[in-house]
Amino acid sequence: MFAITCIITAILCCPVGSVMAGEKEIIAQFVDESPTWPADLGDKPDFSEYHGKNIHIEMWFHDPLYVRFFTITAQEFEKLYPEINFSWTITQLPDPWDKLVVSLVSGRGAPDISGIEISQWGKFWKGPYQHMMPLPVREEGLYEKYIEDRMVAYTGPDGEVYGLPSDCPVVVYYYRQDVFDELGIHAPIETWDDFIEAGKKVRSTGRYMIGFGDNTMDQFWHLLLPRGGGYFDEQGNPIVNNEKGIETLQFMVDLVQEHGIAKVTQSSAGDVAGHAPWKTGEIVSLTGATWHPDYIMKIYYPELSGRWRAQPMPVGDPSHARAGSQGGTGMCITNQCEYPDLAWAYLKYSYGSYENQIKRWLSVHYLPSFKDAIFDPAVLEYEDPYFGNQRTGQMYAELAAEVPPFTIGRDWTALITAVNDRINEAYSGKMEPKEFLDWVVSRTR
Fold first, then answer.
1. CATH classification code of 170-326+413-444
2. Could you give the CA distance from residue 37 to residue 16 in angstroms, rounded to a whole number?
3. What integer best gives the mean pLDDT of the chain?
4. What is the pLDDT of residues 104-127, one digit of tens each?
5. I want to staple 128 with a disulfide (CB 3.0 to 4.6 A). Which of 124, 247, 284, 399 is the partner?
6. Which CATH class is domain 4-167+327-385?
7. What average pLDDT score do residues 273-291 get?
C-alpha cells in the first residue's frame, strides 16, 4: 500500500484543493504500474536487510512540479521493493533553504532529500555542505552522462558532487504571437535593434514590449550571460561591474527610460499581482528559462494558451549567444538521512536513468540534463499546445549548446541578493549602472 503525504504550503495562485485534485490525475498518467529497475543503472540494488521494515523518507522542495515528479517516482520505487513498508512526506515550501541550513548545522530536523535551487548553493558552500552526503556519481559512471556545467554547479569546494541536477534550464525569448500578428511584427526577432522597433509598435497601442522586475536580478542575468558577461570569474571574484555588466544594464535602462518600451513591474514569483501585466496583456513578451512556461505561465495565465510562441534570444552583435541559463536545482541527501543507501538508490532511479529523464520531460517539461536524452524524439517531437503546438523541446535542445559557460562563486547568493535589493534604483535613474554595479560588488566582497 502506497503511503504518501504531499504537503503543499505555497501553491502559487491556485486553490490547494483544485491543484491537488488535478495533480492526482496527472500523476496517475505517468506512474508505471509494473516498473523495472533501469538497465542503464546496472544491477538492481539488494535491500533484503530492510524487508518488513517501516521506512519513512521525507523530502523538501520549493517547486510543486518537483513534488509531482517525485511523487510519481516514489510510487514506482515502492513497487520495485514491495517487501519494504515505505511512507513518504513530500513537502513544498516557498523558501526552504534557510530552514535547511539551520537544520543541517543544528543536527536535527532536516529531511532525507532536499532540492537546493542553484542561486542558494552559496549558502551551503561555506560550511553546511559538510552535512550533506557526497554522491558517488563518478564511481558509478553517472557523471559523464550529464551536461557538464550542470554537474559543475553542484560540485563543492572539496571536488565532491552534492546534488543531481533537476534540468537543463535554457533561457529564451517568449512572445505573444497574436499581438505580433495584429501589429504586423515579424518573428522571430533576431536583433535587439529589431526588438526596439517592434517594441515601439507595441507601445503605440498602450502596451509594453517587456517587463523588468523591480526587485529581481532575473532579466539582468538573462541578458548579461548571452553578451559574454557573468557574475564571477573562474577564481570566484565578482566581475559584474566590468564593461559587459555596465553595457548590459545601460541597455536595459535605455529600454525603460529612453525607448519607453519596458515596464518595471512588481516582482514576486509566488504572487498573482507580480504576473498580472502578462496575464492582462499589458506586457506582451518576456525572457525566461525552459521551466518558466510550466512553473509560471501555464499556472498564472492558462487562458492565453495557444497565443504564445518561443524563439532564441535576440542578439546585439554576432558575438552574442542566442541563449542564456537560469535556475535549476540540485537534489541532495542530508547526513540526517537514516537510510542513505535507500535514498541514493531512489534519487538515482528518479534522476539518474535515461528513461526517467524522459519521463520528467513528459510530466513537467523540465529539459533533460543528460547529454543524449536532451535529443530524444520525445523531446524533439513534442508539440506544446500552449505555444500553438510549436516544437519547443527541439528549439531548447538545439540552443543548449549555445549557452555560454559561467562560474557560480561561493558568494553567488550574496551578489544576487545585492542586485535584487537595489536594481530598481538603476532602472529609475537614481543610480547610474556603474555606480550600482560597483555597490553590488562592494556588498559581495
1. 3.40.190.10
2. 33
3. 93
4. 999 999 999 999 999 898 889 888
5. 124
6. alpha beta
7. 95
